[in-house]
Amino acid sequence: MADAERNASLLRKNDKQKTIQKTVRRGRSSSGNSGTDYCKSDKMNAVVVDSGAFTIKAGHSSRDNPTIIPNCIMKAKSERKRLFIGNQISECRDCSGLYYLLPCERGYITKWDVQKPVWDYTFSKNVCPINDYPVILTQPLFNFKLIQDCMDEIFFEEYEASSMLRLNPTDMARLKYNEDHNLTDDTPVLIIDTGFSFTHVIPYIKGNKYLKGIKRLNVGGKLLTNHLKDIISYRQYNVMEETYVINQVKEDTCYVAEDVKAELKLAEKYGKKNNIVKNYVLPDFNNIRRGYIQDPDKVDEGAENCQILRLNNERFLVPEILFHPSDIGMKSMGIAEAIVKSIFLCPLEYQRALARHILIIGGNCKFPGFKERLFKELRSLLPHLWHVNIYQPEDPILYTWQSGSALLSYPNIKSLLVSKKEYDELGSALIQQRFNHWNNSIVVENEEGKTPSQPSPLEEFSLMNNLKGKSVFGKHDIGTSSSETTTMTPTPTSSRILINLSEILQEAASEPGKEVVGAPGTQSAAAAFAEIVEKNAIITTASAAALASGAAVLPNDNENTNEQTDQDGITAKKIRLRDRSTSQDFPLVPPQEEDPFENLVLFPFGRNSYI
Amino acid sequence: MTISKSTLRGSNRIKENDKRRVVDETSRKRRQRKVMELLESDNYHDDPHADLVMSKKVPKFEDNLEQRTTRTKKKERTADYYQNKFRKNFQQLVEEDRNEAEENNRVSYMDIKCEESTLPPRHFCAVCGFLGQYNCLSCGTRFCSIRCMDTHMETRCLKWAA
Fold this sequence. Notes:
With 611 residues, chain A is an alpha+beta fold.
């Protein structure tokens, strides 16, 4: 089924590409090549640059595929008189012991004396000239101000771009995903961008990033290559200097195991039974330009005098770091856990839809088995009634660049571009605001702007009911008067009830999204309460248990609200039938980590006592 | 036949162990941090051109600028200009960003980092890569068998380093 879907989407894509090319031709012929007239044609053309930390994907939007340029300057041992910038490395005869000058540090450009020459090379006449076309440039998430300043300055003043749009790569990718799958613009999409420096999990709600739900995992291709280098150097040859070669080894041999323990058992076996172990012939840059996996059945004459790497469990344990960074002692959750966490940080009504539309892009997706493993983990971590769909594009590295054409057909594109004139008049700071507002902070504003009007009196009433219910339980267990518990205003005198209330409020604010997130007042109140809770050390175990029981009831209510909002085709009746069982598994997924009473949920008052 | 008291009794293994230094928690953490930093490094070796004296014949970056297709030639700045103007290391950038984010109450780079996993860590043998259930008494590194232990003791054990 998935194949059929992919084929269909491919067909659609092809069609689209054709139409794009047609319009391009039309646009050209009508407006000539003068460049300033591009606005008149119905389809805009631009130079799309996906400037990643490892490779720059640059090209004119009318082309099918971009030029891929390594974003680095390399120094070779053999040729001492020159530097290799970007693609020039193909002219290098001996790539052993390449010394890299990388412009990015953890994904953010810090070494401009390296980045500038690489960009100079990229936009030179023979590679990808800008020629008055608008420039669409990608930048990492939360790009620092200073870096943005410098990018603007280089592009407007140095390259004299007529107009420019800086945006996150995932902003573009989402547009293409929506276009390819015929989705409306406000469909929630979860994008996982796993690249050279890091892995980002970004939920898009109503076409905007939901900032609170974004997660970054500091594991990328660079770390994986370095780790592989490290373990090979320890176990076999010293290859610490051979980043270039080991990166190829990684790309050629590594894969993601579906079940690590089973795979390990297989890797332990000797002889023919072990189909994991592979011999990799290292290049000598004399006869062999690029390393390859040796065929075990054939006698390889060329490799007789070559060095051979024997790769066994390294093949799947290296990409495994993406799923379990703790394997190398990194204190961070894996990619699947981060996705689940990200989904549950989003407003409740969008959570289901996010799990339905998961898009994975970036170089690490190219490990065979990556998608299957991710699906397997997500399937077991997310509620069983949810549909989980993961879409991996044909080329996850170029997907962002290819989505440039989707961006250019975006209706508002012209208003998003900033022209050189505006840059000269307004300066970089104001332009940054403009760039960053699109797809970004709007989300938060939207959420806060729309929600106060949204919760109807009825909903608020039901929330009050919930709260009353909780405090009644609290009262029974702690033995405080019930009249106080119904008051919503914080009075720091009755601290125990405050704790009680604040807990519930926190719980409520974080959990049932739709009803509560609404009133910013409640949220801030909850935050204020939380502070008090932190300061207060008089939480008795009894009250803690009571709170826990209060918290235990809440998820059930959530399930009910979920039922009401759910219009995904599964009838409410069906869910109600399973209500008991789902409410049992539901809270197992931790909604909020910092809840100190979470572990108490099961003891001593099981939630069944209140159902 | 006289035998000195020290060689008379007791297991050699225990004597060996007594001599061995146990690396404390802080230096174990320090080593871990070092490993993580190394995993982010660009190169492990020195610049092969470091000892090279640049003569005028060596092509410089600026040579490429001629090929560029800008309309005017007035503002052509060297790469060093940008490096000097925007000289700030990553730590400074993060710090600045965090301060600004706190003022404006927005989500920043630091906030979106993944928290620690709720799942227990798995342990792999540092020598061969398979599951390792034992750890080194001195430095806490994992290994799976006596063979791997011996290799570890001879090579990477922290009793030598740190």
